[in-house]
């Protein structure tokens, strides 16, 4: 056997991509302690903590309006599954944490969707999970946004707009339930 044949199988690593935005970043530099565009390993049994207390949090936000520990992320594997997930918990007594449309009070926690927007105060964080297989650690990969994340992704209506550009919700006489039509019908 060659050394190539005896080498251990390479595992893929779950990576949490997080894109940060704050309207005053250019002036106040609240993200100056974050390592952007560099993957960082976090042991699977450790909690990733975000906040202003550098003694407790690995991810520091340099802003007095941020709690000592703002929120934490716990990496885990679902019961009877090979799927890995993150659980997000609000650690701030003063500020609510919003994950997509879900508002979390102090010590509330939910599973982090595979792609979502996390908001607190003026902070906006786009979180995207890239799946992997490693059980020993996960990685974080932080990015800095130039424009508001909500501005980029937010649409005035959550309803799909048909190709003709006219929304059926504009016409109250039309049925509210979706209807299927053939493209060739006139």
From TrEMBL:
Pfam family, one: FHA
Compartment list: Cytoplasm
Ranges for region Disordered: 164-186
InterPro entries in alphabetical order: FHA_dom, SMAD_FHA_dom_sf, TIFA
Superkingdom, natural source: Eukaryota
Alphabetically ordered keywords of this record: Cytoplasm, Immunity, Innate immunity
Residue ranges, compositional bias (Low complexity): 167-177
GO cellular component: cytoplasm
Residue span, FHA domain: 49-121
Chief location: cytoplasm
GO biological process terms on file: innate immune response; positive regulation of canonical NF-kappaB signal transduction
Keyword flag Phosphoprotein: no
Family per record: Belongs to the TIFA family.
PANTHER family cross-referenced by the UniProt entry: TRAF-INTERACTING PROTEIN WITH FHA DOMAIN-CONTAINING PROTEIN A (PTHR31266:SF2), TRAF-INTERACTING PROTEIN WITH FHA DOMAIN-CONTAINING PROTEIN A FAMILY MEMBER (PTHR31266)
Listed name of the protein: TRAF-interacting protein with FHA domain-containing protein A
Gene: Tifa
């Amino acid at each position: 056997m060659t050394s190539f044949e005896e080498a251990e199988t390479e595992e893929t690593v779950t990576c949490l991509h997080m894109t940060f935005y704050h309207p005053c970043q250019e002036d106040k530099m609240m993200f100056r302690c974050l390592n952007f565009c560099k993957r960082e390993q976090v042991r699977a049994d450790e909690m990733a903590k975000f906040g202003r207390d550098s003694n407790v949090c690995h991810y520091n936000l340099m802003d007095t309006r941020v709690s000592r520990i703002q929120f934490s992320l716990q990496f885990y594997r679902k019961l009877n599954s090979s799927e890995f997930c993150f659980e997000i918990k609000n650690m701030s007594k003063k500020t609510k944490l919003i994950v997509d449309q879900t508002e979390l009070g102090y010590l509330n926690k939910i599973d982090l969707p595979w792609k979502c927007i996390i908001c607190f105060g003026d902070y906006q964080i786009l979180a995207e999970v890239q799946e992997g297989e490693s059980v020993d650690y996960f990685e974080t990969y932080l990015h800095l946004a130039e424009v508001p994340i909500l501005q980029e992704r937010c649409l005035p209506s959550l309803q799909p707009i048909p190709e003709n550009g006219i929304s059926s919700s504009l016409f109250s006489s039309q049925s509210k339930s979706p209807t299927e039509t053939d493209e060739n019908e006139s």
